[in-house]
Each structure stands twice: as C-alpha cells, then as structure tokens.
C-alpha cells in the first residue's frame, strides 16, 4: 500500500482523499513548515500533497527517494522546484480548480469597487447617511476592463462580464488573439492595457517577469478613475507603489484578495476606505474544496498506476 503525506491545511481534506484512494494508499497529515519538516514527514512516502504556503525545494526531491508525485493543491506551482522534480518525480496542479469561485470573486470585487460599496458601508457605520460619500462614481457600461493574463480563471471572469456592456481587453504572451476573441476579448500589449483599460483584473502567476509589474510607473499610466483587482498573486502589485498611487489620485480604488506577505500585518492599505481586502479567499466554496481533493486523489492514483495524470505540469512549459 502506498503512503500519501499531506500538509495540514484546511482545504486539504484527508477524508475526501482517503475515500477516493481507497485501499490503494494511506493518508497522513503533518505540519510542513520547513524543508526539514517535509523530508522527515515524507520519509518513504510515494506522494506529497502541499498547499500554496508550502514550498518544495530541491532538497526534498534529492532526499525522498521513493517520492513519485508532488501534488499542488491549487492552480499555480510557484514554490515547487520544477527542474529538480523533473528527474523522476511528477508534479501536478489543478488548473480547472475554483474557476467559478475566483471569477465570481473577481467580478464581485470589481462591482463593489466601482459602485463604492465599501466606502458607503464604512460611512454608514460611522453614522453618516449621504449618497455623496461615494463620489465620484462612474457607469461601468461602456468602460474597458483589462485582464493581466488570460487563462481559465480570466476566461470565466470575461464570461461573467459579458452582460455588462464593457469592452474587454487582455495581455498574455501565451494566448493568441483568436483564442481571446472567442470570449469577446481583444488582445493588447501591456502598455496598451495600462493606457486603454478603465479597470484591470490581475490573474497572472508570479514570475520574474510579473513581480512588481504594477509599480509607480504603471499606476501613473493608468486612468485616475481606475480600479485594480488582484486575484492572481500578491507580488505582482508593489503595495507601497499602490498606496502612493491611491494617495496621489493616480487611480481610484483597489480590491485585493492576495497580498505580498500573508497574512496581513502592517500594511499602508489597511486603513484606506477605497481599498477592499479579502483573505486569499477567492478560491473557496465547499464545492470547490471537495472537487479539489477528488482531483488530487485521482491524479495520485494515475501516477501510482504508471499513467499520466490529468493535472500533469510540463517541466518544459514556457509559463513556469
């Protein structure tokens, strides 16, 4: 019987994994806070399941000789040393995971920011009662919404925005204009995205190219009425630059589900009325968590059987 080690994250449900794996494998949960923790916990296990907060460096692949699969419980694989894994260990993720949830969250953040719901909410709770507290508010219909990256989650977001009479544009070097056009989206470069989009929704992975892509210069080039939504990775937005942009009216508002250093501690964004912050929760619904764990277990079974799993991560992929 194979052995599966999982990080003790709330969205990794050992009971769901065990129900799918059946008699093929046992499931052990452990706190995996350091590389040494992972190596000690994995031992002779064949499978390791980790959440977004658990990096898997080269040392794990070098010292865990029986490891056959590292399954990332999420969409990205940042933090997993893919080149090290390429020598005999399969890495998987769940690319279709939480498509409905993240796209709904992104649209919700955009609509709440455009309609200044957070500003109104805080004003009313302070004892104020005036529609002018939200000024200025601009009509969403007719405006341009831009996407940084156009993968599955951005595509679902575009589908949800289709009924709002917005022009949709996106920048993504790995998605061609024909594929974007199927979703009513026009392909543009990053410079044009900043110049043309009234609002931007960030869905990109964190790479050397995307880290702090939204810096002071980027915010200066955006509309002063723009809303920036981030449901991608926190490091894409330079938060000091964002706070500066808000203070200087370079943009109007921001709504972030992800930040650079989670959880939030001391942030210049925390006390600003025009900022909405949610605790990396865009992925969550009870249905999405169940689907996630079933997908992971199915991929583990495929690898143990010598088959290619559905969530296989190609180590030669350009986007890694």
TrEMBL record:
Residues 24-313 form the D-isomer specific 2-hydroxyacid dehydrogenase catalytic domain. This is D-3-phosphoglycerate dehydrogenase. The keyword NAD applies. The keyword NAD applies. Residues 108-282 form the D-isomer specific 2-hydroxyacid dehydrogenase NAD-binding domain. Keywords: NAD, Oxidoreductase. GO terms for molecular function: NAD binding; oxidoreductase activity, acting on the CH-OH group of donors, NAD or NADP as acceptor; transcription corepressor activity. InterPro entries: CtBP, D-2-hydroxyacid_DH, D-isomer_2_OHA_DH_cat_dom, D-isomer_DH_NAD-bd, NAD(P)-bd_dom_sf. It comes from the Archaea. It holds the Pfam family 2-Hacid_dh_C. Belongs to the D-isomer specific 2-hydroxyacid dehydrogenase family.
């Amino acid at each position: 019987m194979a052995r599966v080690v999982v990080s003790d994250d709330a969205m990794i449900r050992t009971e769901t994994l065990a129900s799918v794996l059946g008699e093929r494998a046992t499931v052990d949960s452990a706190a995996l806070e350091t590389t040494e923790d992972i190596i000690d916990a994995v031992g002779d296990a064949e499978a390791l399941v980790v959440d977004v907060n658990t990096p898997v460096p080269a040392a794990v692949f070098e010292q865990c000789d029986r490891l056959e699969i590292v399954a990332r419980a999420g969409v990205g694989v940042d933090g997993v040393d893919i080149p090290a894994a390429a020598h005999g260990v399969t890495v998987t993720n769940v690319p279709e995971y939480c498509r409905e949830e993240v796209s709904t969250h992104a649209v919700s953040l955009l609509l709440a920011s455009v309609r200044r719901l957070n500003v109104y909410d805080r004003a009313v709770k302070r004892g104020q009662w005036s529609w002018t507290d939200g000024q200025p508010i601009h009509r969403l219909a007719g405006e341009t919404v831009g996407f940084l990256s156009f993968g599955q989650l951005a595509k679902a977001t575009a589908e949800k925005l289709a009924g709002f009479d917005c022009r949709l544009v996106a920048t993504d070097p790995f998605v061609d204009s024909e594929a974007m056009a199927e979703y009513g989206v026009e392909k543009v470069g990053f410079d044009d995205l900043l110049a043309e989009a009234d609002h931007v929704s960030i869905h990109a992975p964190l790479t050397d190219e995307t880290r702090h892509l939204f810096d002071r210069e980027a915010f200066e080039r955006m509309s002063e009425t723009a809303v920036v939504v981030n449901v991608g990775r926190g490091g894409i937005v330079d938060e000091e630059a964002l706070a500066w942009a808000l203070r200087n009216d370079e943009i109007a508002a921001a709504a972030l589900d992800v930040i650079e250093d989670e959880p939030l501690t001391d942030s210049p964004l925390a006390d600003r009325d025009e900022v909405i912050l949610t605790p990396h929760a865009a992925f969550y619904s009870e249905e999405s968590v169940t689907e996630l764990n079933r997908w992971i277990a199915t991929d583990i079974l495929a690898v143990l059987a010598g088959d290619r799993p559905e969530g296989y991560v190609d180590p030669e992929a350009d986007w890694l």
